[in-house]
Design brief:
Elements (H helix, E strand, L loop, with lengths): L12 E7 L5 E6 L7 E5 L5 E6 L4 E7 L5 E6 L3 E5 L9
Antiparallel strand pairs: 1-2, 2-3, 3-4, 5-6, 6-7
């Protein structure tokens, strides 16, 4: 089955994708410009529910830290990290 992610209809691309324990999709994005580069967060039904803007293209994301609530974002020339209310899904 396929799903359209709300707000991903312009020429930008999602590169790295992670999921939190609530089933939300965290997708790194870029290649469009200001107001789009960063991380987009989508609910399980595909609605965009959040965004973290970065000053450069975001190439990948992962959850880390002891509680898996720190989001690491790799970008063109930088590594960003932010604590979130979300907990990254555990890989088994």
């Amino acid at each position: 089955a396929s799903m359209k992610l709300d707000g991903f209809d312009n020429p930008g691309n999602a590169d790295g994708i992670r999921v939190d324990v609530d089933g939300n999709i965290w997708a790194s994005a870029g290649w469009v410009g200001a107001g789009y580069d960063g991380v987009h967060v989508f609910a399980p039904n595909g609605d965009r529910i959040g965004q973290i803007l970065l000053p450069e293209i975001c190439s990948n994301v992962c959850f880390g830290g002891r509680k898996r609530n720190r989001l690491f974002m790799t970008a063109s020339q930088s590594l960003y990290a932010v604590y979130t209310d979300a907990i990254g899904a555990h890989m088994t």
